[in-house]
Predict the 3D structure of the following.
Amino acid sequence: MRLVLLGPPGAGKGTQAKLLAEQFRVPQVSSGDLLREAVQRETPLGLEAKGFMERGELVPDEVLLGAIEERLAAADCYQGFILDGFPRTIAQAEALCKLLGAGKLRLDSVVSMRVPEPTLVSRLSGRRTCRNCGALYHVEFNPPRQAEVCNRCGSDLFQREDDREETIRARLQVYARQTAPLLDWYRERGRLAEIDGLGDRSEVFSRIVTCVETRG
Ligand code: AMP
């Protein structure tokens, strides 16, 4: 199962990628998580990526691509992966295609999640993440049982630095300018399935699974 999830920030890619990873028993590969971890550990990748992420801009390919290639070459990706947040530009999609092609592999599905902008802003500004296990919450739509504490592991929740109002706007603009053209790119190649990303997580999940299964 080699699946790419596309959609603007706040569309629910991370939430759905986790569910799909469980269902299909392949890892979730999130470029954002990979970068945030590098920033936290202050690795060379993290130090280079930090400023771009804080401004809501895309991290340049020279900085990111090597790390993605390395991640996808790891043993746990042998049976497949759920890519979340990558590719984000046509150049990245071409790089991915080349990378998979070298191993005579191809993507099984590319699913784009459609969500209207006002919903994205309210989802992102209320989003909270568990510091330890990465579980996702929303202060209003999916609150933890105890404020700021993860239901699953009891660790603290935090708000991502780039989930603040000004950065959210910048990220949505970056999406419209740099990532939206990627939808046409996959559509022209007959690879794109589009789903409605509104509704509760299990409804959205079934829509994605239906797309994946009907594409065989
Ligand atoms: P995300 O968690 O997917 O919203 O990503 C958070 C931030 O990481 C983005 O705003 C970018 O700065 C950076 N990032 C994540 N994925 C990519 C990518 N494929 N290309 C460039 N930058 C990325």
Observations:
- DSSP finds eight helices and eight strands in the chain.
- The first helix runs from residue 13 to 24.
- Residues 9, 31-32, 35, 52-53, 56-59, 64, 85-88, 92, 162, 171 surround adenosine monophosphate (CB under 6 Å).
